[in-house]
Structure prediction request, 256 residues.
Amino acid sequence: MNKNEFRLMRPDEIQEKAKTPSIALLPVGSLEWHGVHMNVGMDTMHSEKVAAIVAEALDAVRLPALYIGTEVKRTETQLKNLGFTGNENITGVDFPSNSIPSMYFPPEVFKAIMETEIKYLKSIGFHKIIILNGHGADKQIEILDALSNLYSDEKTKVINFLCFSPDSKYDLGHACLLETSIMMGIDSECVDKSKLPERTVPLKFKDYGFYDGKAISGQPNSTYTVEFDPRDATADIGKEHLRKISKECINLINSL
Prediction:
């Protein structure tokens, strides 16, 4: 039994953990389309895995992961960068070609749930509340940054930590090489690359519901196809990322 898991702890154990210095880790992500080759819970499982590594290293308390990601409608510019006309009504990665939709919570609902979690942890007395965010949506980051600023004070530091490094040698993107590798490093049975077409077939963003980070930042290639190919993903790349990002999180927490 892991006594760092909040759900397994008795009240006296929680109170003891909440004494100075105390750390609460709150993993959050989404239930979102991640291509035909990968599970929809990838974002949250990613944040949960990082939380588990950090909790063990720092003897921190780990809260149950929240599968409650939020998204908003794509802008005309974003849509054009993904190979659409710009007139489509698309939220997040719910492209017309996808076989099922994602479960996106409205921003106000997402905000209310996260605010409740943070206030609860503060009421117990935790001094460092680290939100481990595995879903890179702009709106989700915006809300978590705002809540972190709102609820940080002299007694409590609330930090929104995005589980991706800007120094990564792999383009982030969505459900491409890096995220597919991460999921393979966590649980390879959740990934089936055989669901993707043969290597000779280019992977168009709008046909598969995934894309390179270069595209969404305004630098798509002329064919609007994936360059950081999920078919090149490996568990070793994913495990390397998990080690690196967990170390970055540990260093950040120790610096607070």
About this structure: The chain has one domain: 22-248.
